[in-house]
Amino acid sequence: MVISMENSENKVKNTLNQEKVNYKMLIIFIGFALAAGFLGSLLGGNMASFKTLKKPFFAPPPIVFPIVWTILYILMGISSYLICCNKTDKKFKKRACFFYLIQLLVNTLWSLFFFRLGWLFFAFLWLLLLAVLVIIMIIKFYKLKPLAAYLQIPYLLWLIIAGILNISIVILN
To answer: Taking the model in full, what pTM does it have?
Structure first.
């Protein structure tokens, strides 16, 4: 029995040692996600036209958006680090990282369509595409590292809220 417990303790220690956090890489992954968000805000341009749009009664105050998005981009960075630096099946990891990058690109471009170009309905359709890509990404992440998938759930929920807000703005305007 003692030998069995020692073996179990060694297995736990080995697992923890294999999963050492590379803080430099973690910061790079978080920084990359935050940079994509910053680029999206630059592409969105001037918010003056947004202020003139009719919004639904449930629209959050403007200050909520940068706070929520910053948190979500940090979670994306952590999640992508857990996947892309994972020492598992390289082929499956590449697919998961591919969907992460594609959804990040689609996310970044949404601001351009909605804010700068004012293509409100197209932006809604683009947001639907983004939600589908995020669901696929979450599934791929889950197969490699469930924690990475769980970290994306707030993002998916926020996209649902954003989609409802987006289509409401389309209807009201």
So the answer is: 0.86
